[in-house]
Automatic annotation (TrEMBL), chain B:
Source organism superkingdom: Bacteria
Domain spans labelled Histidine kinase/HSP90-like ATPase: 38-138
Organism: Streptomyces violaceus
InterPro entries hit by this protein: Anti-sigma-factor_SerPK (IPR050267), HATPase_C_sf (IPR036890), HATPase_dom (IPR003594)
SMART domains: HATPase_c (SM00387)
Residues annotated as transmembrane: none
Name of this protein: Anti-sigma regulatory factor
PANTHER family: ANTI-SIGMA-F FACTOR RSBW (PTHR35526:SF3), ANTI-SIGMA-F FACTOR RSBW-RELATED (PTHR35526)
Lineage: Bacteria, Bacillati, Actinomycetota, Actinomycetes, Kitasatosporales
Amino acid sequence: MSDAYLRPVTGHVPVLRLGDVLLVTLQGDLHDSMAQQLQQDLAETIVRTGVHGVLIDISGVEIVDSFLGRVLAEIAAQAKLLAARTVVAGMRPAVAITLVELGLTLPGLRTALSTEAGMELLAQQPPVTRPGGPRQESP
Amino acid sequence: MHTAAGVEACLPIRSDLDLVWVRQHVRQAAARLGFGLVAQTKLVTAASELARNTLVHGGGGQMEVTHVSSAGAQGLRLAFTDEGPGIADLDRALSDGYTSGGGLGMGLSGARRLVHDFHIDSTPGDGTTVRVTCWVAQPPRPREEA
């Protein structure tokens, strides 16, 4: 980590496709409009590519405030409506401690400790349609 | 009483890009004073919430950063000021889950939990000032809220 002012990143966050998963790596300090743009880009990319998983790596993110927390929760919710599952990977311990104190436990978010673990989690449970009844969703 | 060593910096809050500067400035100021990583993260997160309130609800304003000391303890005080419409019902605005701006309603109440001291002054029609202070290595204190 450097002491120098980091340049805020502008433009789009790159969305990479790895097989059946879209991979997004958030780095540094994201500004609000970029987070919202990402939310929209992801919805469109899920529909265009038909992937069943979204993996968001936040190991390079120093803080998650209620705005970014809401964006992550909304990404997961909209992905679910578009038949894809979302895993947020690599949250820093200080971020988790702060989110809980802030009152934001984000119960709808699946998490993994690393990108690798997140990929495994997405691969483990293929989005099968259950023949016996309605698809089971976690609450 | 605390002694203030003078205003260290005053940052405008006019756009979401300014929120990025506010977070970076607060992080560096906290790191310089010797805040640990978790304490830095809490203070920066609180600053981000409060600066966003200043921008979204107050129509923009500024943040003043002051280095304070009390009985040998070092701290950082942040004051967020806007000249917006003010908050008519402070108790309601400070409760979890109350939102007027389409957020999760955790901004103000959450920010209050992340800092050691929290003061809010608001006059409807006249604007709002929120002052928060965090101390380096604060001794344990009782929780205020039930």
